[in-house]
Write a structure and sequence with these properties.
LPS-assembly protein LptD central domain-containing protein, lipopolysaccharide transport protein A fold, mainly beta, single chain, elongated, six-stranded antiparallel barrel, 55 strands, 882 residues
């Protein structure tokens, strides 16, 4: 009776209202609406049922059936239902829903059922909220990235869904572009989809490909599984199956991908890749690759046959990549790694990246550093490696590419931040001048090892032993002793001393400076002439050997400002900032025999001599020879304009000249050529978009028949102060800059613990179809004066272009190229075409010429769940699409 009375009250709810219904025991008292808010749910209903309707709500007290008309809505825990009409039967615990046919005969407001992450759209549906079973007619349900369309769907109490005459797709349209059609289908939410028998349908055209059953994983979390290989053909290795293997989701922090290649002519490849992430601590990735390329003469037309791509003999290549990035945390040590190392021609023969294939050198670094915000002490340890390809010429004149590798094992640094001596004794800093005197300390110890045995080859005369020769030896057990004998070990000390800044006459700043540094070496050289020849022998003296250097000086600077008040319609004023700097420095002649850092040797049979460092080619700070008593000068200029932006009197600053600087020095202790070259650089932006940079060097001395004379050019007569010796020019402009700025990311992605090796990123993933077009142009040129002809010679001039064009809302083209204006040739050029096919994507990548000439055509489903649904056609020198 109480329940019936309560439901009777609900009948008078307004059309736009809502109510909460909670069941009570049959013998309970009447529950008023205000009491139901905090009432505890009992009976068959587990939680509050919230419902509302836009048109009307009617309750049949005898049959205990409630009818909701017009945009009806029900919330029941994780379950939500929206439809044109909903009926609730309190006796049978069943909720029925259906849409409404409009005047055009189209079914509107179809039932939309949500159960947690699951969504069902249907013509009609029925759901038992007690047993949690349901039946759906004409349904569409979402399962992860996939959609299931079915004539009838039933849901059991465990949450499994059964579909009859079902279609499975990742296309979100009501009429999908493609789907997998199956007679029967079972869906275990957040786990898998099982179908069978089934076949594939594209654009309503069934394909002849069918299977008795299918298994499609759809876990909420990452899942492990088999990676289907791609099929293709290589000019060198024949037909292949590539990138097939297994993906292993080890845990929420780490995953692994193990794949391999196999070629019909005998080659193979194997790769192991892994990514890992620890939120707020670190992230990284690791890969190890090994390939075997079988010797072949089947090299197609247009493919280079130089040493890099020479397949006349079997080759085995290996490559290791490791990247580890820590999250910066104050007071915590920071371990980081960036490793890229392997065989000499691995990237040219196997790389899927044009940047790697074109790169002349690779570097690796592993380091650990720590500093404390409460302590001036910091320290770090670094291990580094670099490799590059050199051309080595034999005695017969033949050239061979060799791999030169170098290692720093290790590089240890220790430092103490600069402090005032007053702080050492517990004093308090109050801003006095004397507190500007600060002393610090830096130590660096390193051992440099290289298989490129090259020391002293730039001295201009031959040696009788290895110190003056360029020799690259193989790194193996028999050569390790020779390599480590030529290791360069040094310990460097640096004591930075600042003496503070003194204000003079209010507008000038005087800064004195003193510096001292010292290096320790484990060997040095003694030189001697070989009798009867022009050869020079070098004897190595092992032990602990010390060099040091010191210097002092003063610097005086000020700022001058000039303002021109224009008071025009747009321009308010122009300001010029002029910053002169004058400094003096003194350093002793460390080439003096009393220091013992240099040795004067006879360089030829005519008796000509030359100073030669006893630490030639070693790592460390070796002071240069010659007394220095130099007066240095520099001038910096900056010009800005103040402009009105609107009638409200709002102003903005526009830079007319970012920097216009020149500098030089005059060494009063030098016996000749006391004045140095004058260095000039200019940087500005034209029209606030076109960046221009100019830098050059002017020589103030005369040249006669290509020989520099100790006579100023000004003495020739006329107004010739100096001669331009070299000039560098660079400019660049980005058109449609605002369109690109609009697409800038608004913020960083949230931290995650989910590594992702599952999906291969394609060129289409980098295209923004809502940017109409972009274009960036840059021009770089370099000139050097030929002192014999007295003409500026163009060493190199290159123009680069890159950008994109969105032809339609579905078609886009991107391109990049550069042109050598001096040699009149195009360098690396790439053209990409992308077509958005809604649930699919097409990308064409083309390098029309050069060593890396290739093309690649890809058509694939966007969803990572069905990423193996793809068509790929490619051709390149190595058979690998970049």
């Amino acid at each position: 009776m109480a329940i019936a009375l309560f439901y009777g009250l609900v009948f008078f709810i307004s059309i736009e209202g809502s109510a909460q219904v909670r069941p009570t025991r049959s013998d309970s008292l009447v529950v008023t609406p205000s009491d139901t808010t905090n009432a505890k749910a009992k009976g068959d209903i587990e939680t509050t049922i919230n419902y509302k309707a836009k048109d009307s709500i009617r309750y049949d007290a005898v049959s205990q059936i409630m009818y909701l008309y017009g945009d009806a809505h029900i919330d029941y825990g994780e379950v939500a239902l929206d439809a044109a009409f909903i009926q609730i039967n309190w006796k049978t615990n069943i909720i029925d829903a259906e849409g409404m046919v409009d005047s055009a005969g189209v079914l509107q407001n179809k039932p939309l059922f949500k159960n947690g992450a699951e969504t069902y759209q249907a013509e009609r549906m029925s759901y038992n909220y007690k047993s949690k079973k349901g039946r759906v007619i004409g349904a569409v349900t979402t399962q992860g990235e996939g959609y299931i369309h079915a004539e009838t769907i039933k849901r059991d109490a465990e949450g499994s869904v059964y579909g009859r005459h079902a279609r499975y797709t990742t296309c979100d349209l009501e009429h999908p572009h493609f789907y997998i059609k199956a007679t029967k289908m079972k869906v275990i939410p957040n786990d898998r989809v099982i179908a069978g028998p089934f076949h594939l349908v594209f654009a309503d055209v069934p394909t002849p490909i069918g299977l008795p059953f299918g298994f499609f994983p759809s876990p909420r979390k990452r899942g492990s599984g088999v990676i289907i290989p791609t099929f293709g053909e290589s000019n060198q290795q024949g037909f292949y199956l590539r990138e097939g293997g297994f993906y292993w989701a080890m845990n929420e922090y780490m995953d692994m991908r193990i794949t391999g290649d196999i070629y019909s002519l005998g080659g193979y490849g194997a790769r192991l890749q892994s990514t890992y992430t620890k939120r707020y601590k670190f992230s990284g990735n690791f890969s190890l690759s090994h390939t075997f390329i079988k010797a072949t003469e089947n090299i197609g037309a247009g493919v280079t046959t130089d040493n890099v791509y020479n397949y006349s003999s079997d080759s085995r290549d290996i490559w290791i990549s490791w990247s580890h990035q820590p999250v910066t945390r104050p007071g915590k040590g920071q371990f980081s790694a960036s490793v890229n190392a392997g065989s000499q021609f691995y990237n040219q023969r196997n790389s899927t990246s044009p940047q790697n294939a074109l790169s002349p050198a690779f570097n690796s670094t592993v380091s650990y550093r720590k500093s404390s915000p409460n302590s001036p002490i910091n320290y770090g340890v670094t291990i580094s490696q670099s490799q590059r390809t050199l051309i080595q010429r034999s005695e017969t004149g033949e050239t061979t590419p060799v791999q030169a590798m170098s290692f720093t094992l290790p590089d240890f640094s220790f430092g103490v931040a600069s402090q005032s001596p007053i702080e050492w004794f517990g004093g308090t800093l109050t801003g006095r001048w004397i507190e500007g005197i600060r002393i610090g300390y830096n130590l660096n110890a390193r051992q440099f090892v290289s298989n490129n045995i090259s020391t002293g080859s730039s001295l201009g005369f031959p040696f009788s032993n290895s110190i003056g020769r360029d020799t690259v030896v193989a790194i193996n057990g028999s050569n390790l002793a020779q390599i480590f004998r030529n290791a360069r070990t040094s310990i460097n000390h640096d004591i930075p001393i600042t003496l503070g800044t003194v204000s003079l006459f209010k507008y000038f700043k005087l800064t004195p400076g003193v510096s001292y540094s010292e290096s320790w070496f484990t060997k040095k050289y003694n030189y001697r002439n070989v009798p009867g020849s022009n050869l020079l022998a070098a004897d190595t003296l092992k032990g602990l050997h010390r060099t040091y250097q010191y210097q002092g000086g003063l610097s005086l600077t000020t700022n001058l400002y000039g303002i021109a008040q224009i008071k025009g319609k747009k321009i308010e004023a122009i300001r010029h900032t002029f910053t002169p700097n004058l400094s003096y420095s003194f350093r002793p002649d460390f080439g003096n025999p009393e220091f013992g850092f240099y040795q004067r040797v006879q360089r030829d049979s005519l008796g000509n001599t030359q100073l030669l460092s006893r630490f030639q080619g070693l790592e460390g700070n070796v002071p240069g020879p010659g007394l220095s008593s130099a007066l240095s000068f520099s001038v910096s200029n900056n010009v800005e304009m103040k402009m009105k932006t609107d009638s409200a009197g709002v102003f903005k600053k526009v830079s007319l000249i970012d920097a216009f600087n020149f500098s030089g020095s005059y060494n009063m202790a030098a016996d000749s050529f006391k004045l140095s070259n004058i260095n000039v650089n200019l940087s500005t932006k034209l029209f606030n978009n076109v960046g221009v940079t100019l830098s050059g060097s002017f020589d103030p001395y005369q040249y006669v028949n290509g020989t520099r004379r100790n006579v100023y050019l000004l003495e020739e007569g006329g107004f010739k102060l100096a001669r331009l010796m070299n000039l560098n020019f660079n400019t660049g402009f980005e058109f449609n800059q605002q369109a690109r700025k609009q697409q800038a990311a608004s913020g960083a992605a949230p931290p995650t613990n989910l590594p992702a090796l599952q999906r291969t990123v394609t060129a289409a993933d980098y295209v923004e179809f809502n940017i109409p077009w972009t274009l960036t142009v840059d021009l770089t040129s370099n000139f050097t004066r030929d002192v014999l002809t007295n003409k500026l010679v163009n060493n190199a001039t290159t123009a680069g272009f890159n950008g994109s064009v969105t032809l339609t809302e579905k078609w886009a083209v991107n391109y990049t190229t550069s042109y050598d204006l001096k040699n009149r040739v195009l360098s690396y050029t790439n053209v990409g075409i992308v077509r958005d096919l809604h649930c699919w994507q097409m990308s064409i990548d083309w390098v029309p010429f050069g060593v890396l000439q290739r093309y690649s055509i890809n058509i694939n489903a966007k969803s990572s769940l069905l990423q193996d649904l793809r068509i790929r056609r490619s051709s390149s020198a190595t058979g690998r699409p970049y």
